[in-house]
Design a protein that fits this description.
single chain, 199 residues, alpha+beta, hpI Integrase, Chain A, 10 helices
């Protein structure tokens, strides 16, 4: 499962016309199927569902990046950097994603976020210690349990499904906001989600 945000490579349908994104029903089934996982694994699935982040970005999350009072999570945009004008070095970029308060509370219950935030020495330790291949296997296992099969049954299909839900909402979320939430470098990448409207 490889991720890429190159607009020329991004697409929502295979050459045969098969979907590469999860529908609202499939996203709901993915969440339901995650209930049989351990609390930690279940929270990983929920973060992917509610934030649209990449698995690698979720694995980089630390207690410091969960804004408990604001019901937002800060995601390190691993494919998006800003060049510092002074040094010329690339600086890390973060994006703030609003999530349900219930997700924040469940993260707190599973990981003890409030107590960790009182102990400065652990707040930069990632919430999950699993490797990226293990995360991919987790996603595939939950997809299989949910009966989601086909080209869309991937981590990227889950991420695409998040963006499709935003662009097809009533009212739809503006493209520039979706661009920020997804962490795309190029607005052309975000525009691929308009293909769903034409379908």
């Amino acid at each position: 499962m490889q991720n890429s945000d190159n607009a020329s490579e991004m697409r929502l349908f295979t050459p045969d016309g098969d979907r590469l994104y999860l529908t609202a029903e499939e996203r709901r089934r993915f969440l339901d199927a995650s209930a049989l996982e351990s609390p930690s694994n279940r929270m990983f699935c929920h973060v992917l569902h509610y934030s649209g982040c990449r698995p690698s970005e979720a694995l980089a999350m630390t207690p410091r990046r969960v804004m408990i009072n604001d019901s937002t999570i800060m995601i390190h945009s691993l494919k998006k950097y800003k060049t510092d004008q002074q040094s010329g070095l690339k600086q890390a970029q973060f994006r703030s994603i609003p999530v349900p308060s219930s997700l924040i509370e469940h993260l707190d219950l599973v990981f003890g976020l409030r107590s960790q935030l009182r102990r400065d020495f652990v707040i930069d330790v990632p919430l999950w210690s699993m490797s990226l291949p293990t995360a991919y296997r987790l996603i595939k296992r939950v997809m299989d349990r949910a009966g989601i099969v086909g080209a869309q049954a991937t981590d990227k299909g889950l991420r695409h499904g998040f963006a499709v839900a935003l662009v097809t909402a009533n009212p739809p979320v503006p493209l520039h906001v979706i661009n920020q939430l997804m962490g795309h470098r190029d607005s052309k990448t975000t525009e691929i989600y308009l293909q769903v409207l034409s379908e």
